[in-house]
Design brief:
about 325 residues, 5-stranded antiparallel sheet, 8 helices, about 25% helix, about 30% strand
């Protein structure tokens, strides 16, 4: 088998499931490799040619001879902190497979969604904000600090607190995940922020939330509502059954700035969060491997757009 599309993802990836089905319907040969199963394959990479081969029990199941594109869905091998110390062999496995995925950047003769180095850099929230501002987008007042006094000196009213990176922690049998939090000045104490830096932003209300999904040259924008109304705070904390996604168009200058942002970050896919305020649109963040399966519908076929891009049928 010489796949046209290679998908590097995880077992539980609904967006990838949709695209694999669509590619198969189009008759495009696709090889999906889940990070949890990497050691079930025998993989050979020639970094100088460059090329790659995949085998299972010695049987060749895929090469890069006809490869057109790679969909890189999982930039971090396993993010969550384990509840107990990992044995040395598990530590070695995780670190080396993570390095292996980064090393696949040698396959630079194919189209990437997204190039690994670009993905890692674009995941940095401070760098996102700088690049968005340089692309002509408005951004909230933001500082990164573990100094409570510095935060209080820069903000006088309620603020938004975000983690610098996705937080997935384990506490015995519980999994812990953080959302964006609205805090007042009384919450910002040295004890609360000293041990780890946070990203502090101005609190914006009233607002309308938008999710913009950029796939190559395709833009899909939705307003996010609850029971027909804008949402206060982080919309991800709202009961999913009450959320509504209403298709809309972006102002032309915002769309052009999004294109600049994608070009500066060297991304072919990005899930961008905006808010609209009384003064206009404001960029919040971009996720280079963001989920979009929950937005897919008969009227909004993001799976087809992604599949067409990967099959090099864009446009």
């Amino acid at each position: 088998m010489n796949p046209e599309v290679l998908i590097l993802t995880s077992l539980y990836d609904f967006s990838a499931d949709l695209v694999v089905l669509q590619l198969k319907e189009q008759g495009v040969s696709v090889l999906r490799i889940n990070k949890e199963q990497l050691n079930e394959y025998e993989i050979f990479v020639d970094p100088v040619q460059p090329s790659i081969e995949f085998r299972i029990n010695g049987e060749l199941i895929g090469t890069s001879k006809q490869l057109k594109s790679i969909w890189f869905r999982q930039p971090v091998f396993l993010r969550n902190t384990p509840p107990t110390p990992l044995p040395p062999d598990e530590q070695l496995k995780r670190s080396q497979w993570s390095a292996f995925l980064r090393g696949l950047s040698v396959l630079d003769h194919v189209a990437w969604m997204n190039w690994p180095q670009s993905t890692y850099l674009a995941e940095s929230k401070p760098y996102q904000l700088l690049t968005a501002r340089r692309s002509g987008l408005s951004v909230p007042k933001t500082i990164v600090s573990n100094d409570a006094h510095a935060i209080m000196d820069n903000f006088r009213e309620n603020i938004i607190i975000k983690s610098l990176d996705t937080v997935l922690l384990r506490d015995k049998d519980d999994s812990l995940f953080t959302y964006t939090s609205i805090c007042n000045m009384d919450d910002i104490t040295p004890e609360a922020v000293k041990n780890a830096p946070v990203l502090a932003q101005e609190y914006i209300e009233p607002k309308m939330d938008y999710r913009v999904t950029v796939i190559g040259d395709s833009f899909s924008a939705v307003k996010i509502l609850s029971d027909g109304y804008p949402i206060s705070g982080d919309w991800r904390t709202v009961d999913k059954a009450k959320l509504e996604y209403v298709d809309c168009y972006l102002p032309k200058h915002i769309e052009e700035s999004c294109k600049q942002l994608m070009n500066r970050l060297n991304l072919n896919f990005g899930a961008i969060d905006f808010v609209e305020t009384t003064t206009g649109f404001m960029f919040l963040e971009i996720n280079p491997t963001g989920e979009w399966g929950w937005l897919n519908s008969e009227e909004r076929r993001l799976d087809i757009i992604v599949a067409n891009w990967l099959a090099r049928r864009e446009g």
